[in-house]
Design goal:
With about 110 residues, this protein is of the alpha+beta class. The chain is built from four helices and three strands, in the order E-E-H-E-H-H-H.
Length: about 110
């Protein structure tokens, strides 16, 4: 089976599109010239390639594509700019229930039951 790469496009409305392909040049042309009106990028053209992975095993590429689609905009932008410190920061749980934000007092004087 051929190798695949995962890519991130920036659309004209500044949204990001994540996809997977075995030919990035062809796929970019398809996004910018396709006649498929119900595709995500059709009304958001032109699109620009912002990031592309190295060639990967198909299973790994599909898993990475699924993961990137769930990432926040900030996290995708950190990847695109190769800002590994920000990517690490944005990868941490940011909600108030995170163990880093939730401070439950510890009572060492609890009795044995």
């Amino acid at each position: 089976m051929s190798q695949l790469c995962v890519y991130i496009l920036e659309c004209s409305d500044k949204s990001y599109y994540v996809g997977v392909t075995n030919n990035i040049e062809r796929r970019l042309l398809e996004h910018n010239n396709s006649e498929v009106e119900d595709s995500y990028t059709f009304l958001r053209r032109p699109v620009q390639l912002k990031w592309v992975s190295e060639n990967m095993d198909p299973n790994q590429a599909i898993e990475l594509e699924k993961a990137l689609k769930k990432w926040t905009r900030k996290k995708k932008e950190a990847l695109i700019s190769e800002n590994w410190d920000l990517l690490k920061t944005y990868s941490k749980c940011q909600n108030e229930t995170s163990h880093e934000f939730y401070k439950k007092p510890f009572d060492s004087a609890q009795g044995d039951s």
